[in-house]
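Hi C.,

You asked whether I'd gotten around to modeling the 179-residue construct. I have! Everything is below, sequence then structure, no commentary in between.
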Amino acid sequence: MDGVIMIRQETEEDFRQVQEVVRLAFQGVEESDHTEHLLVERLRRSDAYIPQLSLVAETDGKIAGHVLLSEVKVVSGSDVHTVLSVAPLSVLPAYQRKGIGGMLLREAHKRALELGYGAVLLLGHEDYYPRFGYGRASMFGIRFPFDAPDACCMAMELKAGGLDGIHGMVHYPDAFGME
């Protein structure tokens, strides 16, 4: 790695390379269903897709990483709140453990806040995401619609009070294939 990493918004010309980055990033992950690259394609065609929050990390003349934040709802009775979900965060295996994932995540958080979003949710590794400010979603009264360890179901406020009054069940868009 030559040390120069550029984080930028994904373009349509990147789609094929991003698909391969996402596929390879999850290839050896035991907890994965190995369809994350297909999820990215479905999300791009959905109402939950926010082009400004689909970012790539470019280095050595190629895309080494990708992150996508899309809209999800947190529902409690008649209360419906829109927040974001990180799904997925991907870095090519040869570039992992070099800080690229963190760079992508921090830039995505910054851009999401600039767009007016207050909070982000994710299902992820309990030893990785807390360093970026994520904590157990259950502490905010937020539940996920699948069976996963509580420590892996996380939430983060992008701004102070970003999750005030938000609690209930996460409802993913149809693109996630969950409901």
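If it helps when you're writing up: The chain has a mean pLDDT of 94.

Thanks,
B.
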